[in-house]
Design a protein that fits this description.
388 residues, alpha/beta, TIM Barrel, Lyase, Ornithine Decarboxylase, Chain A, domain 1, 2 domains, nine-stranded antiparallel β-sheet, eight-stranded parallel β-sheet, 30% helix, binds pyridoxal-5'-phosphate
Length: 388
């Protein structure tokens, strides 16, 4: 009967997409708002919050996350790509959007047309953006200048600052408005971190060079989530949290207290198999059953972002109890051991990440089982998993 429904809906654009599979990610937008409140209280009323919603809001849905965070008082949003910024604009979001990835050739007109604020660090960025502003007749475009104080990724070295300022003070500079200056910390989440204080000092020196030339950008910003927790003296005018807003951190040691996880992932048991001791489970036969076992078949796999590298280590929650994932996680399906829960039936709720009853599977556990970082777990939950 489902197939008939699918046929009927195929030509009908008004129908919502069909989602019959029981695997989904639950996104708690109230948790995002709560976490923004935690960050705002921590940094104080004079410090703005630029909410980082790149990579589809770390897997939570960029548009929904952005709307919730802006409504709750985030000054603006940060994305990595121009495309991500355009997606926010197309959704009607008018807040400032900082494009962290710079001015990619060919993106200038869109940046100007959509009033996105690019991060710049090269003469070519200035030139291309200024030409686009002139072509469009728009007012000067806001930009933030990025200084590489030690991350060795994006930005210019302090020694290159003078050259770029010469350029900004030239004819092209008139079409740009230097709203902000920023840097990014490389090691803020290391507990033993001698690097961040050095980076912050280099940034302060660069600010000194700007001010010596009469340049005083309104928004100076340095700190990501771990940075804002560990370096309160470096909050400057604005902080740029990402992971903290979603309720997590690189590790619990650098997490703000009171954060609430916004994402949980759930599924339901698709089938129950009774198998004898000695049966071997899944690809590669890595797991041999040591006792007669009841297996729950769960429709989630690595194509959903449930990492295959967790095989042999992962656990899930059923009826508030931890159950082992047996054998290799496959592309679409995982097998779990429900032998100790004899009443469990087909259709039973399975929690892969988050709380069930009194038990909780944290993002830190999943990250440890898969040798990944919490960011990868959250961003990795694939598009195939509907967000509710
Ligand atoms: C430049 C920049 N600022 C801020 C962030 C947010 O970092 P976090 O999620 O650790 O708070 C990122 C994310 O990688 C970033 O690239």
């Amino acid at each position: 009967m489902i197939s008939q429904g699918l046929e009927r809906r195929r030509g009908d654009r008004r129908q919502p997409p069909i989602t019959v599979r029981p695997t989904y990610a639950h996104i708690d937008l109230a948790a995002l708002v709560h976490n923004l409140g935690v960050v705002r209280r921590w940094v104080g009323p004079r410090c703005r919050v630029l909410a980082v919603v790149k990579a589809d809001g770390y897997g939570h849905g960029a548009i929904e996350a952005a709307r919730a965070l802006v409504d709750a008082g985030a000054w603006g949003l940060a994305v990595s790509l121009v495309e991500e910024g355009v997606e926010l604009r197309q959704a009607g979001i008018a807040a400032p959007v900082l494009v962290l990835g710079g001015v990619v050739p060919g993106s200038e007109d869109v940046i100007v047309h959509r009033s996105l604020t690019p991060v710049i660090w090269e003469r070519e960025h200035v030139q291309r953006l200024a030409s686009a502003v002139r072509r469009s007749g728009a007012p000067p475009a806001a930009v933030h200048l990025k200084i590489d104080t030690g991350m060795s990724r994006l930005g210019l070295l302090p020694s290159e600052l003078g050259g770029l300022l010469d350029w900004l003070e030239g004819p092209d500079g008139g079409d740009l408005r230097l709203e902000g200056v920023m840097t990014h910390l490389a090691c803020a989440d290391d507990l033993d971190d001698p690097v961040s204080p050095q980076q912050i000092e280099i940034f302060r020196e660069a600010l000194g060079s700007l001010s010596a030339r009469g340049i005083h950008p309104a928004l100076r910003h340095v700190c990501n989530s771990a940075g804002l927790v560990r370096h309160p003296k470096a909050h400057f005018d604005m902080v740029r949290p990402g992971i903290a807003l979603y309720g997590a951190a690189s590790s619990p040691a650098v997490a703000l207290e009171e954060l609430s996880m916004a994402m949980s992932v759930h599924s339901r048991i698709l089938g129950i198999r009774e198998l004898p001791a000695g049966a071997r489970v899944s690809y590669g036969h890595r797991e041999e059953l040591r006792r007669p076992s009841r297996l729950g078949i769960v429709p989630v796999g690595y194509a959903d972002g449930y990492p295959r590298r967790m095989s042999g280590r992962a656990q899930v929650l059923v009826r508030g109890h931890r159950c082992r994932v047996l054998g290799n996680i496959t592309m679409d399906v995982s097998m779990i051991d429900v032998s100790d829960l004899p009443d469990v039936r087909v259709g039973e709720r399975v929690t892969l990440l988050g709380q069930q009853g009194r038990e909780r599977l944290s993002v830190y556990e999943l990250a440890a089982w898969s040798d990944e970082i919490p960011y990868e777990i959250l961003c990795g939950i694939s598009k195939r998993v509907p967000r509710r």
